[in-house]
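Support request, priority: normal
Reporter: lab tech (M.K.)
Component: structure prediction queue

Hi team, I submitted a job for Phosphatidylglycerol--prolipoprotein diacylglyceryl transferase from Rhizobium altiplani yesterday, and the status page still shows it as pending. I've pasted the exact input below so you can check whether something in the sequence is tripping the parser. The sequence length should be 293 residues. Please let me know if I need to resubmit or if it's stuck on your end.
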Amino acid sequence: MPTAANYVAIMPFPEIDPIAFSLGPLSIHWYGLAYVAGIMLGWYYARQIAGNNKLWPGDVSPITKVQLDDFIIWVALGIVLGGRIGYILFYDMPAVIESPIRAIQIWNGGMSFHGGLTGTTIAMIVFARRNSIPIWSLFDIVAAVVPIGLFCGRVANFINGELWGRLTDVPWGMVFCNQYIERADGYCPGGDFVRHPSQLYEAGLEGIVLLLVLAMLIYGFRALKTPGFVTGVFVCGYALSRIFVEFFREPDAQLGYLLGTNWLTMGMLLSTPMVLLGIWAMLRARRQAALQH
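Reply from support: The job had stalled in the queue. We restarted it manually and it finished. Here are the results:
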């Protein structure tokens, strides 16, 4: 029996076309634009951090703005290739085997953060070694700006009407269906049900909250002077945020719950080791700083 909250909550998903605009036969999706915006805004913020010598050990920035300009190509490739390959491996391999063209349709299923993190990490290690940049400091500057990209990506998930939440009766619940998402027969993948807008929960926690926490550590506590600490906070903070939101997010249909009913999801499984990794990075950074003093 629907409650009063149900009637307040039952609202249509915004009529937003996932295709922002078209240039002849080429369709430009909001999802792709979100990644471009995330990378460019992150690059701008990284330049501000790199240009402030007082934030770094010895009051000298370990990376120049010119090096950051070169690095943006590396990180873009790491994010896109790693994120898409990771999504295919972790979430969508059977569907891609059946229809290989699906592998390059980044708006169809999207990207895996854990895959993107792996790809970006490889790009950072190679770039740091080629340019004699302290690896942990490069990790830190990237970790500081990643929440911007996460925010943009989750908003794009919302526009696409994908990765919606579990059924709910909260007043801010939403029916994820509009003319751009429903099939020819009128059926919507999310069904005619009120669900948590879990994409926005992730945008808020992984994006805005984590960005502010890291900025406070960098500018208020000079955390960049302890190489690796910002990285540890980011990794641990992202993992905890993701695990929390997974309790409100509907698991991918092709995977479902990995353990029991309404319990373990792939997102939780991939994020749990990150909590330990983040704690290790913070402890390591503190230990190294103590040894140097």
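The chain has eight helices and four strands. The beta strands are 19-23, 26-29, 174-175, 194-195. Let us know if anything else looks off. Ticket resolved.
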